[in-house]
Amino acid sequence: ILHRGNGSGATVCTDIAELKMTIPEVIIENEKDGTVMVLIPAGKFLAGGDKEGEKKFPVELPAYYMAIHPVTNEQYARFLNERKPEKEELEKWIVLASDCFVKQSGSGYAAYGGKESQPVVQVSWYGAKAYCEWAGLRLPTELEWEKGSRGIDGREYPWGNAWDKAKCRNGMNKGIKRTAEVYAYPKGVSPYGLYQMSGNVWEWCEDWYDEGAYKRYKTGNLALPDSGKYRCVRGGSWRSDLTGGFRCALRGSYDPKIRGDYRGFRCVRTG
Asked: How many CA atoms lie within 13 A of 86 on its CB side?
């Protein structure tokens, strides 16, 4: 991935068109919403290790594309402007509160506050799902998210096995701020070049949360849980100061109806 400084200490991707021309099958741009996506090749990776002493195990997944960063406030505002939800739908998807940087603007919606390129928050699982369907994409499964985060070698964090608070947005380095721009912390990218697979915001996954799901996955049965009370989230957020909360294998869960200022999402596309 190519980078340049943006004058604020963060970095942003540049020359995406040139990059796509060079390796068009690895980097794509989703036409509907402009999401830049990276190919996660088919093959095995080491999954698991959520609990202390739990052994990792090989899982084989087909190829898929994963967004290089979480959906931003600007992208979500565009979705709302095109989708034009009814009041009931809007309230189910997102809370336009003071800590959400998407607001109603005239007859539409706009990102604001200089946070246009930061992850959208206060979005429920239903709001994330609706965005993905509008964009012609989908939410990642837990296993897809995990492979995108850790690569194939079972590493603890996207950047390696040692914790480094300087490589993601977290409660130990955020100061008075909350979320960061989606291209911040370039030294913390995953083996596939994905930004902020640790920290910044927890990310919604497709799956219902099942505490025993990984026992089944070990046997090769990768069918998703067909029901549950909570949906899976992964990655940790700016609010946490517990280092274990940023491990690639850590599994979290939340009520899909609940919104929060530390949860967002990213999209995938079947390869």
From this structure: 2
